[in-house]
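Suppose you are handed a protein chain with no further information: no name, no annotation, nothing but its sequence. What can you learn? This example shows the usual starting point.
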Amino acid sequence: MKQRSFFRRYLVVHFLSLVLLPVMILMMVAGVNPSSDPSSMDTTRNISGLIGLIIITFITVSGVFFYRLRQQLIRLQKAMTVPGDGSWIPEPIPERDSGMNEVDQLGASFNQMIRKLRDSHQRELEEESLRKQLIANLSHDLRTPLTALRGHASRLQREPLSQEGVASLTAIDHTITHISELMDDLLSYTLLTSGKYPYHPEPTDMVQFLRTSVASWYPAFENAGFHIDADLPFDATFSWEIDPQWMTRVLGNLFQNVLRHAVEGRFIGIAVDTLQERFIIQDHGPGMDALSANRGAGMGLKISKHMLSEMRLQIHFSSDAEGTTVWIGKN
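A reasonable first move is to predict its three-dimensional structure. Written in C-alpha cells, the prediction is:
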C-alpha cells in the first residue's frame, strides 16, 4: 500500500484550513449577540481564542513545512551542481529509509542516475585501459616478426637479383620501415594519452634549437631534391619551456610529412618570427586534404598536437592549391 507523504498530508490540511477558517469566522460573526450577557461574551472569547490557536498552529506548521522543503531543495541543488565541462560526477545525496516525500523520491531518482553514471564511467575507464594495454602489447609483439623480415631482406640484398628483384626488395624494406614507424607512433600516442610518456621541460633557445633540427634534416631534403629556404636569424631569439625530445619529435613528424607528401613541389620553407614568438614551415605539396587521407601522417599529427598542447603550445595549418603552411606558437 502506498504511504501518503508529509507533503501530501500538509496539502490536505492546508486546503481544509483555507476552507474551514473563513467558515468558522463567518459563523462566529453571525452568532455574536450584541447583548452584554457574560456567558455570551465568554463563548465569543473562547471561539476567538480557538480560531487564533488554529491560525497560529497553521502558520507554525506551514513554516516548518516550507523550511524542511527549502532545506531539501537546497541540498538537492548543491548535489546536482556540476562543472560545465562535466569533469566529475557528483556524489549521491543521503536518503531516508522511511517517510519519503516527493523531494526525497526525486533525490532517490537522482542517486540512481548517479550510480548508473558511475558504473558506466568505470566501464569506460576499464575498456580504455584494456585498449591501451592491448595496443602497447601489440606494438611490442609485432617488432619481432618485423625484425625477422628485415633480416631476410638484408640477406637477399647480398644475393644476385634482377632489376625487378632489387626494386621489389627496396619496396619491401620501405614498407617494413613504414610499418615500424606506424607502430612507434601508435605506442607513443598510447603512452602520451595515458600520461606515461617521459616529460622533462626546460628553458630552450628556440632559434638555436630550430637551426640544429634543420641542420640534421638538411641532407635528407637535399637527397630528395628539395629547395630549402631557411630564414633563421642570428641576432634575435626567444625562449620556450619545452621538452627538447618532444619538440624534436614534433619537428621530425612535420619534416617527414613534407618529405613524403610534398615531393612534387620539392620546396620547404622554414622561418622564425621572433616578435610573435612562433616559427613557420611551408611546402608546395598537395595540401592537407591529401595529407589527412594518409593514416600514418594523421597519427603523427595527433602525436604532435598532443605534445604541443602539453607544452602549452599550439599548431595551426593553412592549406591551398599552392601548398601547406604550419605555424607553431604559444597558446
